[in-house]
Fold this sequence. Notes:
Largest sheet of chain A: 8 strands, mixed
CATH architecture of chain A: 3-Layer(aba) Sandwich
CATH class of chain A: Alpha Beta
Shape of chain B: globular
Number of helices of chain A: 12
Strand order of the largest sheet of chain A: 6-5-7-1-8-11-4-12
Strand content of chain B: 5-15%
Order of helices and strands of chain A: HEHHEEHEHHEEHHHHEHEEEEEEEHEE
Number of strands of chain A: 16
Oligomer: heterodimer
Number of domains of chain B: 7
Number of strands of chain B: 23
Radius of gyration of chain B: 40 Å
Strand content of chain A: 5-15%
Largest interface: A-B, 88 and 85 residues
Number of domains of chain A: 1
Amino acid sequence: MGIGSVALAWLIQQEAARAVPPAIKQKPVTDLKPRVPQAQPQARAMISLFQHGGPSHMDLTDPKPELTKFSGTDYPGEVQFSFVNQASKKLLGSPFQFHKHGECGTEISELLPHTADIVDDICLIRSMHTGANGHEVSIRYFHGGIPGVLGRPHFASWLLYALGSETQDLPAYMVLTDPGGHPVDGVNNWSNGFMPPLFQGTVLRPKEPRILNLAAPSHLQGTLQQQNLALLQKLNSRHLEQTGGDADLEARIASYELAARMQTSATEALDISQETQATQNLYGLDNDATREYGTRCLIARRLVERGVRFVQLFLAGQPWDNHSSIGTSLPAICQRVDKPSAALVTDLKQRGLLDSTIVHWGGEIGRLPVTQVMGDQASAGRDHNGQGFSTWLAGGGIKGGMTWGNTDEFGHRAVENVVTPNDFQATLMSLFGLDHSKLIYHHNGQPQGLTANRPAKIVTELLL
Amino acid sequence: MQNSARSFAGICLIAASLFFIWSSAFANDVTFERDIRPILRAHCFDCHGATEEPKGGLDLRQVRRMLQGGESGTAIVPANVDASLLLQRVRAGEMPPGETKLTPKEINTLTLWIAGGVKIARPEPDTIPPGLGITPEERAFWSFQPIQRPAEPAVRDDVRGRIRNPIDAFLLARMPEGLTFADDADRHTLILRTHFDLTGLPPSSEQLQQWMNDPSEDWYAGLFESLLVSPNYGERWARHWLDVAGYADSDGYTASDLERPWAWKYRDYVIRAFNADKPFDRFITEQLAGDELSGPQQGDLTSAQIELLSATGYLRMAADGTGSGEDNPTGRNQTIGDTLKIVSTSLLGLSVGCAQCHDHRYDPIPQTDYYALRAIFAPAMDWQNWRVPAQRMVSLYTEVDRQKAAAAGAEAGAIGTQRAAKEKEYMLQALEKELQKYAEPLRASLKEAYEIEAGNRTAEQTDLLAKYPSVNISPGVLYQYLPEAAEDLKKYDARIAEANGKRPAEEFLAVLTEPAGHLPDTNLFYRGEFLQPLAVVPPAALTVACSEDARVEFPLDDPSLPTSGRRLAFAKWLTSRDNPLMARVIVNRIWLHHFGKGLVPTPADFGRLGVPPTHPELLDWLADEFVQNGWSVKHLHRIILSSSAWRQSSRRAAMHHALDPDNQFYSRQSIMRLDAELVRDRMLAVTGRLNPQQFGSPASITEDDAGQIVIDDNETRRSMYIKVRRSQPVAMLQSFDAPVMDVNCERRPVSTVATQSLMLMNSSSVLNHAAKLAERCRAEATPIPDDQLASLPFLPAPSHEAWQYGYGAFNETTKQTETFTPLPFFTGSQWQASAALPDPTLGFVLLHATGGHPDQPNRAVIRRWVAPQSGMLTISGSLQHGSSSGDGVRGRVVSSRAALLGEWTCFSSTVDTPVSATIVETGDTLDLIVDCLTEITSDSFQWTVIISLTTADGAVQSFASNAGFQGPPEPRGLVVGQVIKAWQLAYCRHPELDEMVTSMTFLADQIGYLQTHRDQIPAGLTASQQALTDLCQVLLTSNEFLYLK
């Protein structure tokens, strides 16, 4: 597959082709220079705090009085289980208290006190639906647009393909993984699929040094390495010319240019010691429980501040997969992410960046309202639920202080204003000024889109 | 972690998401079997067909049953769309519940079918067995068809000339008008491409010259034939197979990730098998059932038996946590599941894992088939009668080894006895000495108490010894009484160690074997849960891969073998002429590694979720050719390498932009990046450091300060011999996409990210390779005569402030340097009078980076520094003389402006040589003079100083005598020779003129810069040496080095 073959087909296809700068028309995408979207964009960057495993919406964001009332009795309908041998239809009321918060009065669980503080800035979607209970199948749906299917570009790769990057000094798409390891589904969480390597995610190391080999050895620093890179560029260009052009070779040349600039820009971007004590404390860097995640949230802000298009944070494995002992395992993971996540929104807002930066918080699925039998009551937990769950968005043209959609009275199925990952993607794309149905990439002669011609609607009610 | 990344539930649900259908439907010919059943299979059969009691009593497996309907009445009404309940429920989104809904296209197909009168392709039987079974339509899928050798296709006349063998015809036949193969690649490109493709290493300069100059017509066949017999061929192609086999040197699964110390025996088996061109059917059979073929062990294992048992390492590649704390049903079943995944993806090209929990939703693999496959391995991998990794080791000790070991043990034991006796004797002697300190009768009482065994002492005696603890002589205190005793005992210890050293090293194989007569049942697990076993399933082949009326079941036990014979029977079925899968899967893999992409782009999925072959006829022709030629992989290489398709250039031309931008027609060769291992191997090869040692235990890895896993710089074996620890991937290899073995690697991605570039720019390992290449260039370069240098740039002359090296004398009267004569000869590391040492006239005068040696008093050595600017300087440093012979040396610092600034003598000692502030003007000299005093022997000295110069503007510059040490500027002709050498080594070619100009300009710029920034020249190097190192780094990290044309 050649990058030279990539046509910005959406630019050609759109009705208002004359609005496009003529120089861009039909020119293949071979760089990450910033490009003009189809419509006036609200958002220019996005930070996604992906919560692997399926946060339990009935215990966190979606209060269900009926569930509490009928706790211990059987769910009246059909339940979609994953682990059938441990299945039970017995409703499990949330052991956690909900209270109204903010001017909007949205109810949030006591487990997320900091998220509760920002409810007026977020849009809480309570009707997410993937239709499948499996982790991987839903994860791939969110990232790649088709449930379960591998080899498709991540949402962020589509963004880069369409819009390029505002910074030429840092990778445009960065992934911040957990010191505990990769999330479930590993490197598939940041795949560029059939797109060229130019649109790949760059993974930061979960501990210092976040980027290996970032500093030149002292004797090469400065002019000498610049001379080296200039010679390298000269040899590579000559070589490229002889091959008649090749996407991989071009991408390698670009990656050297980026690497050279990153030596200063990334060092600076990753230096959180430049932040005030107050900011560091806001993210919980002064506390063992929140320091690690808080540090990554803070780095994410520093990256988008410097023009990075898309940053995604992952947790190791899937800590929200609370099949058992939900009474203890859920508070632990909440404590780790709640404060830093809320701090990110607060901090972006204070700096005037929230208007143009989308923050996303959510997992690939939610959890069932019924108990998963794992021996005694204390070890009870909840099984997977792809039928209905919550996600929140903030900034970048998203309305704050609102909730959208509903699950049934017990929290199993999304029943009102259902939002699928494809709807979610189409909506986000629109905030970037892109039409999901017209953003086309040709792969092996076939037109491909993020939502793959599946039903996908822009949820306009969420937009400012 | 019941729902990990590898959870069966998760994987299987992928299936639920399939959004496409595989046949276009037209109103007039929509049939149930072809068009409707696949839709129902994907969305409905889980509840309405696959189970014995369908939900709501509705069974959708046959049209007659749909008409019959369930509790809610008939599901369909022929030709009446609105009255058909099935369609109503589907359209309303009520069915299927929860799961992904039918696509509009699928609903349309269903509607057309009902409107068209619910057509069936053939009469439906009255009764059908439970389960989904396999329909003729499913059976008709391409990969389950017998392999038939297609005829060579007709090809357009204008391109017929490009056909070298049938591969070309099959490819050309599919090309659109106007497209053909690119021109043949040039000879140089082909030589490199073939070398890397077959051996993973660059040609040596001799090999390159041989093939560049070979005048024969069939030079190219000669080239690849010579490489096919290279021992490195097996290494290169074994690595491909080890990816699919999931090779690792550790157990994985748990955080401790225990080392798997004998896995490499399997790795070596694979290398040898490829080198020997072991017929692939035999290769597979040995890996699946080597133990079953090896026969009973009588006496020592024969080499044939060792080879066969090594082969079963294939079935021991899966991660296995049962040796590190996870010896439980979950851990055991996980290992079995992973092993089946490795077997199915590598040999069947199918992901059978979905069928672990339920009938596969897309491929016709019933759940019973999965357990039938599992039953094949059950006697050897029985989760209820498990053997942990340590219990699966076979010792390679021979009878002779055992005897030697026993003899060594006996010898060590005998010496040990002698030692014990001796020690006892010494203890008594020590006791006597201790007792001398006490008077009788206490002495006698103490002795008596000591000599009685601890348990038998009276309370009095115990108390007595407690009161006088020093009487309790132990071996540890012997030296206090008898210093010589400890030394003597050490001699015994050494002899014991020596005797033990005669014990032959014991090696092992990690094997898969079956306990005799062990024939456990294999139960189908309800939803894949081992806690819910259902019916017993006998071993059998995949139903759909057998002909319709002849399902292949394997005997539970083969009475002619000591083992069950199940795996042997399975291997026989896999490699039989009728098996539609394996030959296709293997030739597709071979093709993939030659062209960078498979004819089936999904090499581990030949099912409906995979991508169908781009050139199905070619795939079948190759598979047939492979089998017809004795499953010879080298035969496949020969025909592929001989084709125009492979020999063509990778250059992109106008026709490619227009007609084949993504190269889907193979109208040019792909540009391919070197695999991770090859990047490092090539660097080692070009620096001349590659250790050719093959086989054996893997090279160790370490963690550096930054926490990344690195290879020790002195470890120079090929990268495939580096330890593969699942939890500790080597940073450099992982960065370039070497797999981190979770299960196995079906296909490597090829990534291009800035972090790779940073590694190539800044990592100590790459910098080291560059320095080594530069060293090699200096050592091997041939100077180019001056008359050939006309068009090349000049290099900067040595700068003025350079240090100078000479000899001469100090004038005691004027306190000035009387004579200074430059030393004329540089050895590469030191200045001296001539190549000979001692020089016939000047003797031992020499200066090196940190010191030197004077000769007679009037031939002192002088290290001269010339002030680049005026200012105030101070000097710090120390003079050291090491020898205790002779009379030492004298050091003086003499300024051309201020005469003698300091004087020190030094004899077998070190003295500091500080010089306080003194003024210099530009061009003044400062001489560090060392003379011999009176004796001229034993006068080697060390003297390094740092000169700090403070200029008028307050800036301070430092000049270190050792860092500033340098030889004479290299003649331009020699530097040019070094550059040419660098090109030849790195790129296997001579640089073009423009490249020479570019390189010399680069060197001139760098040298010029370094001469004014001496602190950036690493110690021990000159400016031009560092510049050459930098040039070498650029070559090693350039695209021409990292990619093959």
